[in-house]
Amino acid sequence: MTEISADDTRLHEPGMGDYFALLKPRVMSLVVFTALAGLVVAPVSMHPIEAAIAILCIAVGAGASGALNMWWDADIDARMRRTAKRPIPSGRVEAGEALAIGLALSGFSVVMLGLAANWLAAAILAFTIFFYAVVYSMWLKRSTPQNIVIGGAAGAFPPLLGWVCATGSMAPEAWLMFGLIFMWTPPHFWALALFVKSDYGDAGVPMLTETNGRRSTRNHVLGYTLALVPVALAIGFTSIGGPLYLAVSAILNIRFLKGAWDIWRRDEGQAEADNYETEKAVFRQSLYYLFLHFGALMLETSLAPFGLGGW
């Protein structure tokens, strides 16, 4: 039997980077940005310190959701090339540690948001964590090809949360921002699913590409993109929109719709011939689609006092 030295053991001790990776920082960055946008464009201003604490709580809540998701999905992650190096399947963090971190951060973020902002915002954050960790991760992800469609609601709540933190209430503008992310999520993930090939099938995840076929997935990408466009443009005609947002949104949606059309026109032979270049390009485009939409909304609000933004 090979003797394991103390130095070898230390090589496998988790570091801060491993624990931070549990929180899905890339997903957290989108959550923080869209929540900040919802807070900034709201008609009621928060004190800067209270606003900063509120955004921090939302970020921690998003991280808690990520940790709970990684704890539950460790078996799936281990079978997918894209996720096999995550902290739990790679053995750097114990599953029990991830569960404890997720639960602790969930409770902390909800209570602190209630104290820093209001209890309606805290309740929405608690529901968001529950929806992502339980409804999506534990139920939808493994049971239906519509997992991304329904589960996308969890990722759509941050701008609504930011709005409620500032105002203590909901409004059509907040729900339209929710709808923008909700409708964007399916074509974003299905474009990815088209070129990650057998990853989802190997892990037993009923992604649309595996259950309905790749032709059906291409149809769905185009269909949901067509449904996304009017939601994105409608925001431009509300109190938080304006000419700048409309111009940015029109350009982004023309490009995104063109990409979805190109995906729909292709068959698998064409896609394999160029190594799924079109699908990869649409996925990359989808990554900055939301950032530019919400950035334009915040710019409209910033220019409004100078008579340059908004209607």
TrEMBL record:
It catalyses: heme b + (2E,6E)-farnesyl diphosphate + H2O = Fe(II)-heme o + diphosphate. It is an enzyme of class 2 (transferase). Pathway: Porphyrin-containing compound metabolism; heme O biosynthesis; heme O from protoheme: step 1/1. InterPro entries: Protohaem_IX_farnesylTrfase, UbiA_prenyltransferase, UbiA_prenylTrfase_CS, UbiA_sf. GO terms for cellular component: plasma membrane. It is found in: Cell membrane. The keyword Transmembrane helix applies. The chain crosses the membrane at residues 27-45, 51-72, 93-113, 119-139, 221-248, 287-308. PANTHER family: 4-HYDROXYBENZOATE SOLANESYLTRANSFERASE, PROTOHEME IX FARNESYLTRANSFERASE, MITOCHONDRIAL. Belongs to the UbiA prenyltransferase family. Protoheme IX farnesyltransferase subfamily. Carbon 2 of the heme B porphyrin ring is defined according to the Fischer nomenclature. This is Protoheme IX farnesyltransferase.
